[in-house]
């Protein structure tokens, strides 16, 4: 039986990796800073020795790192996305147990790209903010470890959506607002919805993670995980409002007033040809299904 050590097991993506792994009969050792009963308490940023101890104790076939900092000041970002990854790759080198490392990167590493041209893994990264800069630094640490012999892959995840989307994301924030205004014709105020993003269902992301875990040969060092489609954020909002059966009105503020991890990026679309070739993975869940299932989990009356 395949066994994985899942770091960040209680997060948005980690939860879905855990659930998907159960469907495949993959044994999961859960680790996080606030674990569920039976899980390991592990903070990657606290030092490499506890990470090596956890790897030795669980003897996994793969370590999946879904942990990281998505918000906070620069120090928080550096701690969660750079120092933590440095500790992880040092632990991997020290523990003496062979395994595959699957680390989650971010489309924010690419920054602004040429509009209309899907961004491939070979594109030069030009992150615009601290989140993207620190995620890129983490990716480079994993790539360097892979060049030194570690079996490792970075999955650059574009914009995950679907059940469990946190309030720090547009979909999660809107779902909470629609729940608050359910049964009314209230107004929901959002930032500009002009930007285009590659929106990929979080369950498809989980499937990509497990495809990387189960691949018989080491995958390429970096692989994009996206839908392969550029979707205007206004379309996401409309889909979720329809799923909620809401009569709420949406008011957009001026352009640039919608802060986020990729603020300043007008358009992104993933080139997913490499992951199709390397892992046989393709996305299967469309935007309307993602928004419907997000709303159903929120539990609001339709």
From TrEMBL:
Gene3D superfamilies: NAD(P)-binding Rossmann-like Domain (3.40.50.720), UDP-galactose 4-epimerase, domain 1 (3.90.25.10). InterPro entries: Epimerase_deHydtase (IPR001509), Lipid_A_modif_metabolic_enz (IPR050177), NAD(P)-bd_dom_sf (IPR036291), Sc_DH/Rdtase_CS (IPR020904). SUPFAM superfamilies: NAD(P)-binding Rossmann-fold domains (SSF51735). It comes from the Bacteria. Residues 4-226 form the NAD-dependent epimerase/dehydratase domain. This is NAD-dependent epimerase/dehydratase family protein. It comes from Actinomadura fulvescens.
């Amino acid at each position: 039986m395949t066994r994985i050590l899942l770091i960040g097991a209680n997060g948005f993506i980690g939860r879905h990796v855990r659930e998907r792994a159960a469907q495949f009969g993959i044994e999961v050792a859960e680790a996080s800073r606030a674990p569920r009963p039976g899980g390991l308490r592990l903070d990657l940023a606290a030092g490499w020795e506890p990470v090596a101890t956890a790897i030795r104790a669980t003897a996994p076939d793969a370590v999946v790192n879904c942990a990281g900092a998505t918000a906070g000041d620069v120090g928080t970002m550096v701690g969660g996305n750079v120092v933590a990854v440095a500790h992880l790759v040092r632990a991997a080198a020290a523990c003496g147990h062979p395994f595959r490392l699957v680390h989650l990167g971010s489309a924010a590493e690419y920054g602004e790209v040429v509009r209309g041209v899907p961004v491939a893994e070979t594109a030069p990264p030009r992150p615009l903010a601290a989140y993207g800069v620190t995620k890129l630094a983490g990716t480079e640490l994993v790539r360097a470890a892979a060049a030194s012999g570690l079996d490792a892959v970075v999955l650059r995840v574009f914009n995950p959506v679907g059940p469990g989307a946190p309030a720090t994301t547009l979909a999660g924030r809107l779902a909470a607002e629609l729940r608050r205004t359910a049964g009314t014709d209230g107004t929901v105020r959002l930032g500009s919805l002009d930007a285009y993003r590659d929106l990929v269902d979080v369950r498809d992301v989980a499937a990509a993670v497990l495809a990387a875990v189960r691949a018989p040969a080491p995958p390429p060092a970096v692989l994009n995980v996206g839908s392969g489609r550029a979707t205007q954020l206004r379309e996401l909002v409309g889909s979720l409002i329809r799923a909620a059966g809401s009569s709420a009105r949406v008011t957009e503020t001026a352009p640039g007033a919608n802060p986020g991890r990729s603020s300043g990026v007008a358009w992104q679309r993933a080139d997913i040809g490499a992951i199709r070739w390397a892992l046989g993975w393709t996305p299967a869940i469309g935007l309307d299904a993602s928004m419907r299932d997000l709303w159903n989990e929120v539990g609001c009356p339709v």
